[in-house]
């Protein structure tokens, strides 16, 4: 009896299975399409629900709704589109790197004139280019600097004495370059010569202190460039002007920041004017490096001279403690923050001369790339607050808390 009941149940189950198979076989296509349509509808409903929630959460109206719709469109970008965008960005980066690595051919024997070759960047660059086969004309301020450079370079390197504050000295150097190039034109001009001191609070300065720096870093640079432009245009050459991160973010008082801002502006104008004649102009923006310009001894000597010539009123407003702390801050900056590897700068100079497509600006040094230059793009309120932390506070300021004005 039990066996009959089990057999009967088994037959009923098989019949149901066969019936189900028959139904599924006849309606598979329609069911699949319905399911797909249902899935699309659900996705659309889900997106619309999310958009409504965003509108409700932000309570947006008018123009804000347009911005929200744009955001929604971006939020709905498919994974395939995101991968495509990333691939495009990566492709552009690779193309830029390849383009940046291309060099000018047949550079051997080209003439390059470099100022400020007694020491530092100019001295090292002259040696680098001499080894590359350039005909280097190195301008030095002193006879000693000239002799030392000639002693460690090839016979093709020539030196000339140049004082950028003296027009007659500039004329003599220009005439020397004309004779050396012998009608070929000048392929490269590197305006490297400059000075940084005195650097101190603005009301410590006299007008002569500004002239001391501006006459070399800016006016001298402009004069030598103007007088060599005919030779540069003839050779469709390069101009490389050494500015500074202080030309993007004024920090210390005195003529240094002013001069470097001027170099930036002059270089931009020169680049736009000379592009019609095939002359390329690049700007080097070094951070803090250990050179003769950043010598602690020279900086402290100038600070002491300026402090001693202050009136009693100005000196009292700052206080003796301020002077001691200012000296200490300068020593810390020069010893701890300044990079001793000046080749980071000269490699940028060299690239600006030999690259087929030189860059407009070169930030040199980790501090320049990751602190000074990014800070120059920050809001004034933020940059002022950061820079105030690097120097001491005058005695008069401690008595009454000063407020930082907001940019409007």
UniProtKB/TrEMBL annotation:
GO molecular function: oxidoreductase activity
UniProt cross-references to Pfam families, sorted A to Z: adh_short
Keywords: Oxidoreductase
A single GO BP: steroid metabolic process
SUPFAM superfamilies documented for this protein: NAD(P)-binding Rossmann-fold domains
InterPro entries per UniProt: NAD(P)-bd_dom_sf, SDR_fam
Domain of life: Eukaryota
Family according to the record: Belongs to the short-chain dehydrogenases/reductases (SDR) family.
The protein's name: Histone deacetylase 2
Organism, as annotated: Platysternon megacephalum (big-headed turtle)
Lineage: Eukaryota, Metazoa, Chordata, Craniata, Vertebrata
